[in-house]
Design goal:
alpha/beta, 6% strand
Length: 519
């Protein structure tokens, strides 16, 4: 390449980066504006994550420690407001948009392919939701996308440094979410079934595996020390919590949750990179996807959202393939049509996954689109899907508990324990309770069970829900002290009686094992 060609290439790269940065900033702005001016309140899981961040450890019943450590730092820097809580997931989403465009470039895609991959990542509705609240999922998407970017680099130039970087990303990813093991398994299958199998005779893949293992080792030690609670959690969740899924249902859910408009290019792109001879060196990417898909199907009770982190890569494959098709047949008109229709569909579907409308406006809008409330879990729903319903009623619930607490004498308050049914209720009491003078909550749900009854004896207990007959099986006295109701919360937590319970028939600590439920 002559000097003029080199200069032109650099200009194209710089201008391409500017466009990708702009799209990443659009993604960031959408989330920041939602968190600042909209939103339906703190999500159930976020209360639990905040509670975990107050008790740092190398692991938790339902997750490794990375995201919790990040939240600890975030809370100390920015506080506990909704905007602060969701700032880092928004940034992670913006970086993912930029990376999707970079992956398309490394696959050989031009300006259109890069922009389309970034726009698809921006308009993918499930990714909007996952980047819209604090959880390990937003970082999980980022780690998978970084890993795919490095895998693409390795297919072009298997320098040792790329393998070392990949090992670090996989290790940190495992410390964030154990499902990165699926990515590792998919990568192994991809190496074995493609021209890259010879890489297994080199030290790069093995060094990457060793680095990932060493980074993950502290969490493994924690699992051993705590008798592998995550295995029990996974077993209970797959057997009792999640609805069974077939290969077809998982595929259909992906199509719907990732914006149906994107199907027209990501699925053909997957096939193109799988079968086209010029793409032999990049065939490892669709093979990884198919391997992970097969793992989820075999599992039988997986959620389609577990494949969400793969889609920035799939969008890059599809965008690159579509660009090649357009160039070959000279159908330039297809470029603006694809981009405009994609962004319009993203705008239309966004309120279903991002709380940008007032709740009653959302309900009317969803009904107009024929979007019925749904959940991947075996739970009854009312007017809202679970991902929105779980944002409502929490402080109102805490106020109902505080009203019951205020009926106690000073001596009873000193002995009182607030026994919550699940980590959402317990986390809300722990976050909002101090301003109402409430003690910390206890619960048998996930890590709350590991934290124990916190010295509670059971002499005085406040509980939500249940019947008088059920309460009197364990307590000599059961006094109804209020009723919690919210128009939008999950039905199983609505219209619950607030009970003041006294004189437990046996010490709470003696019965603590019976309260454990990992799910």
């Amino acid at each position: 390449m002559n000097d003029n060609g080199s200069i032109e290439l650099k200009k194209n790269i710089v201008s391409g980066n500017v466009v990708l940065v702009f799209l990443a900033l659009v993604k960031l702005a959408v989330h920041l504006a939602t968190n600042l001016f909209g939103g339906y309140g703190i999500f159930r899981d976020e209360f639990y994550y905040i509670a975990c961040s107050k008790q740092l450890a190398w692991g938790y019943v339902d997750q490794p420690p990375f995201s919790i450590a990040v939240l600890w730092l975030n809370r100390h820097l920015f506080g506990d407001s909704l905007f602060a809580l969701r700032l880092l997931p928004a940034i992670a989403g913006a970086v993912t948009v930029f990376l999707a465009g970079l992956i398309a470039r490394k696959l050989g895609g031009g300006r259109f392919a890069q922009v389309l991959a970034a726009c698809a990542t921006l308009a993918a509705t499930l990714l909007l939701w996952m980047n819209g609240y604090f959880s390990m999922n937003s970082f999980d998407i980022l780690f998978w996308t970084l890993a795919f970017y490095l895998i693409v680099l390795i297919t072009k130039n298997a320098e040792l440094k790329y393998w070392l970087f990949l090992g670090i990303i996989l290790g940190l990813g495992l410390l964030n979410k154990i499902s990165v093991l699926w990515l590792g398994a998919g990568l192994l299958v991809g190496l074995l079934l493609t021209v890259h199998r010879r890489r297994l005779l080199e030290r790069g893949p093995w060094l990457a595996a060793i680095i990932a293992f060493l980074l993950f080792l502290p969490h493994l030690i924690w699992q051993v020390a705590n008798h592998f609670p995550t295995l029990e959690f996974i077993r209970n969740a797959t057997g009792e919590k999640y609805v069974a899924s077939s290969a077809l249902s998982i595929l259909l859910e992906q199509v719907l949750s990732m914006n149906p408009q994107t199907l027209i290019f990501w699925l053909p792109g997957l096939v193109y990179f799988l079968v086209a001879r010029p793409m032999r060196r990049l065939r490892i990417l669709p093979v990884i996807y198919l391997a992970v898909f097969a793992i989820l199907v075999v599992n039988g009770s997986s959620k389609s959202e577990y494949l969400g982190p793969m889609f920035p890569m799939l969008f890059a494959l599809g965008a690159t393939a579509l660009e090649k098709f357009i160039v070959r047949f000279k159908w330039r008109w297809l470029k603006p049509l694809t981009l405009v229709s994609l962004l319009l569909s993203g705008v239309a579907i966004a309120p279903l996954y991002l709380p940008i409308l007032p709740v009653e406006s959302y309900i009317s809008y969803a009904e107009a689109l024929g979007f019925a409330p749904s959940t991947p879990e075996k739970k009854e729903l009312s007017r809202l899907p679970q991902h929105y319903a779980d944002c409502f009623g929490w402080e109102k619930m805490v106020k109902a508990v505080a009203k019951a607490y205020d009926t106690l004498t000073p001596d009873e308050k000193a002995k009182c324990a607030i026994l919550a049914n699940n980590y959402g209720e317990a986390g809300a009491i722990d976050l909002y309770g101090p301003k109402y003078g409430l003690p910390r909550a206890i619960s048998g749900h996930n890590n709350y069970w590991l934290w124990g009854p916190r010295g509670a004896t059971g002499e005085v207990v406040i509980r939500l829900g249940g019947s008088a007959a059920a309460m009197k099986e364990s307590y000599a006295e059961a006094i109804p002290a209020g009723l919690f109701h919210d128009d939008y919360c999950m039905p199983f937590e609505n219209d619950m009686t607030v009970w003041v319970l006294k004189d437990r028939r046996s010490p709470l600590m003696a019965d603590w094992a019976e309260f454990k439920h990992y799910e």
